[in-house]
Amino acid sequence: MVRKWIFRYRYDMAAILLMLAVIGVYLAPIYGPGQIVFSDIAFGATSHRYLEEIMGVWNERWSTSTMFNAPRILYILPFYGLSLLFGESGPVLLKSFITGLLFVSAFSMYAFAKRLVSVYYSPSFTKTRIFAIMIGALFYALNPWVIFRIQHIYLLCGYSLFPLMLRFFFSAVDPKFQIQQIKNYHPHKLYQRNWIDLFLLAAVFTVSAAAIHYFFFGMIYLGLFTVLLLIKLTWTHRKAGRTYLQPLYGNFLRKGIIFGVFFGLLSFYWLSLYLGSMVMDAQASQHNINVVDTLSLFSRNSSLYNVGYLLSYWWPMFSFSSLPAMFYVGGGFLLLLIGYAMVTRSHKNPIILIFSLLTLLFLVAATGTTFPSIAKWFVILVTKTPVIGSVFRDPNKFIGLIALNFGVLLTFGVIQIMEWFGSSPLQRVYKRLVLVIVVLCLGVYFAPLRTQFIEGYYKPVQVPEAYSQMAEKLTDPDRFDSKALYFPIADNMIQSFNGVATPKWNKGKTATEKATGDFQVYSSPKNTIFHHEGNDPGITYYMNFLEYLLDNGLSSRLGWLFSTFGVNQLVYHDEYEGQEKRQDFHLSQLEGQTGLKRTYKNGLFSIFNLGQPPPYMNILTSKIVTPYGFSRLESYSHLPGFDFSRFGVLFSALKPELKTIQTVNKGDYVEAASFNDLLLSQLPAEDYLRPFDVIEDGNAFLKWSKTFASTNDWLWYLSSQNIRNFPFDMEMDAGIAVTFASKKLDVAPYQMSSIEGKTVVDFDSMLRTETFFKPDNPQLFSVEANPREELNNVPTLHGEIMKGDPSNIWQVARSGLLEAKENNPYQFQITVSGRGTNKMHVKMRFYDKQMRELGVSYVVAPSEGYNFDGVKFYGEYVSPPGSYWMRMDLLTLQRPQQKNYWWIHDIQLRDLGQYSKPNAFTMHKKLEQPQTSHVYARVFMNKAGGKLQVTLPGGVVNIKTHDEGLNQFEWVDLGEHAFPKGDTPITVNNLQGFNAVNQFAIVPVDQLDELSFPVEQALKRGKLFFTLEAESDFNAQGNVQSERALPRLSMGRGISYQQGTLSRDVEIAKTGTYSTAILADLPAGYHGALTMKWTNEETGKVLTRTIHTGESYTRLPVTSSSEKQVIETVPNQDGFAKQIIQIPGLLNDYGRVEFKNLFLTKGKYRLTLVLDSQVPSMSGYGDIHRMAAQEVAVMPEDNTKESLTNDVGCVADIQPGKTSLSSGGEGLSIRYAPSYSCDWNIYASKKMKAEPLQEYAVQLDARSEQIGSRHMKVIFLNKASQILQTSYINEVEERDKEQWNHYDQIVKAPAGSVFMQFQILAHAHKKQSGLFQMKNYSIVPYQAMITVDQLTVFEGTDMETFFTAPHASESIQATRENSMERSFTLYNPTHQQVLIRETESPNPLWEFRLGSETQRARLSVNGVTTGFVTSGSGSGKVVIILASAYRFGWILFIIGILGGAACFLPYRRWKKRKIP
């Protein structure tokens, strides 16, 4: 019996062994020592605890749901078991998984193709046919798409089983297949074989759902084939009539029910999670932004040519130009065989016709947005299809279906061509020759991807020993309530020039650096809170906030801020390529922080213990409800009495639907600088309109775009506009609409390459008008014109906005000035070759008629990280209002290590004004009846803002969004408007500037009192206060500010003024006695004053308080070494530019100034702080003199001589002409006699004493007439009066010097400075007398000015006792029951309302159950952990709501397996059933 079986399947066994051998040889490089670490492959150094990411509904290790992972368990389980046999080896798990996937893909296609051949050719198999089937199977297993997608490994689970699923489907429902398998088959009868096939179909379909895409693809395919089969059978048996067809349809229905029952039983364990989460409003989301630009990005390589060769992956990580010609020859021959099968077999076999038609359909679909005529339908499919639309956003995923069709058709093509030959000896030679050719073509088609990926990106690397050493030092890794936080995250370590983050140890022979995920988290033996794609986006946002603080050195309270996660250890990993300086800077800060104690360090990891971490569940005795952003956590940490162990911060604007304001009890705290800030953050959902929902674009430089505040895109937008003091406002769970463009380029992204416009500048005109590019630094770059006719052999790239620090860019060259129209879209095309052009970056600068710079548009940057030597590069931008001139700058994203040569071969600049439209979006408010509503807009006030125009039912309202001090979202009152019944459009048009809109609130006037009441009651119960940061919460007017950061200050910065004001509108929400606490530095020794004014906007009454320097106030001691640090930005620094320095004497008088007993009535006020430092100038008009020749000296090794003027006609050997100086109380004048001398006329101040590393504020007004190259500078001298450094005062254009200009600049003394001197330099006119005038001149030490850090307004009279948490009589004890359940005992005998914090990420899958009370875990404490508010007492549970369904699903799974097994039993009744 066994021998017969072996003989019968000898060819199959040989083929399977041969396929396994081929796959093994192909994958041989991955079997080397080490682990595969690349891209989205989320496998750690060991398989220890890996199954927790998949089993159950909650992943305790990452504190996230397993919703996306649950279906994967059946597929991964055998490989996980194998890894256990090898000591929980992570490499064994991953490598066996990859091998298994590819082998299962080959076997699955082999089984399906063999069945097709058996049905449509003959059930007898020759070696030729087995060979053909094996070729199709290997093609399916090793084609380029599969190799690309190994990095998305679980996608291949569905792919690998898809042919097998179709095999069982056709065996169960297609009469052609059943006739061959079932003796005396009749289409009305249900056979045992049908039951078996339907069970196997359900089983395979269940396992293949490990790739959720293939669950949907499978449903589409099965539904489509069922319909086609019914149509075919109906047509075939149309003459038999209803009596024949009805039982036939009934048979199909019965089979559908059987399949549905089996599938439901086997899949309930994961399907119940998906459906249950939707029903119970707990579904996980990847928080993707699906816009047309995203679809275009995914389609950028989806040409029909690339699709045909299965190469269309959007980020291939190597240049397609490096593929050898033989790849295309081999692949082309295989495509010919596929086409041959389509042509020769489609008319004979309907199944081949169907596969051929599906191939054509998916070839078109896989092009995505490449072809405009198809693109619009593709966009509709993705953006308008409910629930599953986003599944299709990457058209490359259709390639998997094309590969299936190609595999089938290739099999038939090989059989057809092999059997075309006869059996003569010569024809047998031809057959063997074809066989060799097919094998060779397959080999050369597979080889290049093997080189790039299997030998490159997927080749294992040795995981450093530091990982296992660190793991051994983690505290209590086996305890559920012991958690570590890993920092930083990979998303925040991305290198700007290539878009990837990777550890230094993860290297190989690759075209570009290897993108790497959070391997440290994948390898963690200890629980953590991870910014997983299914987790609350607030966690990622808070991670970004902490990264921002660390990157800029803005906090000395990082220990407190990390403690909000409830972890007991912070694990910092210093391992990222290209981030060495940045990470060293991070560690230098962490080491000096209070509340962080480093307990372990090795070559990569530093472990910091956090002081007194909270229990897993604890009661926070007081709540703080605030409508503001994460920066408030830093602000509060500077207030006496506050700490995160007793106070829980609830952000009302994080999730407006939770109505957190109503949880305020007596003794809790409410922050509000405006009543509307609270009210409008907690409205019913129907009162909001979200701009995010109506925008479908993603390029903010060309039109309205949408983003999330939690993304790095948003932070990049701010950084590009030099906005450095963003308070990390909440986006109200509504997203953000953002734009830079004053007019809209009304062209879809996929149409950009095909639009035509009027050429305004080209290669010849730039050369003719001398506006061609000139290098900024000829020593580093040479940029030359080199016209070339043949330009077709260079890649064409559409630029994308580079998400990195705009300051980390090196200027290469700039064009001359080009004429520009205002509010006009343009497109440029530039063809460049030379080293480093793949790192080229283009930006446009815009100027008005007077050459004042209007703005900078970072237009484009190529995103490919691999090297290429030439590129045809195009991109678009829109000029701002007032533009008269523009200039193109070429930049590089890496500092060159040697001189680079760039040749520009062609350039064109096109006017796209014909495609211009108002940059507007329209929302719609639908009402059942007319109503009058008060309308508010939450817009981003910022220094780069401009003007918005909002069209409402009551008319047009303009919003000014420019503010030099504020950079935050604010509610703007747009007035009352009468809305008619039905649909009312509301249009927002960007008129000028960088603008962002978060929400519109449309509040019915007749409901305003009702909505206000709970807020007013909460204010009565709670203690009212608000905290304002000087640098971000005020309108500031005064001198220029230092770029330095001082971690001792709240948010690292304050405002220092010689004479200036900080002001803003505030609202006192309830009448009472208030006090203010101002964190400030009032240096002693001067006669300065800090004055606070409250101006009642209704009565005009002014309340004033003043403190003079020298008066007593509470001085605050230095509490950590980090408070002594000064963060300096190093100019012209390659890469990270921050460094820590120490400067004695800074903030010596830092403390808290309190103004008490301020009786303030409810209403609106103008709050003003007047800073009057009265620091005397170190130099005056009286000490300005003509500089003597030997007054200062140069260092022996330096050449600091000023360059001579470029004026033609000066004489170098004659002395300068006569000059005269006159000065008085109002200013100074210097007159210059005509002279032909090339020497400088230099006037200088006295030598002023300078302190090393100190900053000095230079202020003056100046004008000049008939003198050349006039400029000013400050020189710093050592003890011997030798020049150490020269700091030039930034000058205006030469033509603007005749008018009065204000100069305000900070200069920094270098180390070793003893003296400093101010100098005025100019050349006399050759024929006319000249004049220089100066007034308002002063030079003062910056640190001597009064500095305001933070102001807090609070109810009461004493800041020391304001934040007082009552002693807690309540307590809670928690116990882990299992991964999906916690039990607790809450002791709350007085039934006070308490806030319970749980150390898990907020997720509505968790439900709090206490007695009859239930509540879902939606509330976020401090924005990152779970909170529950209850007044109950006793024993309760916190459970996963779908846990019972999950467990029940496994019971059904066992029932399904038993039912399926029963189908295989040899019951006689299967045979005895008669046809009905």
Automatic annotation (TrEMBL):
Name recorded for this polypeptide: Membrane protein
Transmembrane segments: 12-31, 92-110, 130-147, 153-173, 218-235, 256-275, 313-339, 351-378, 398-417, 429-447, 1448-1467
Keyword Transmembrane: yes
Species name: Paenibacillus terrae
Keywords on record: Membrane, Transmembrane, Transmembrane helix
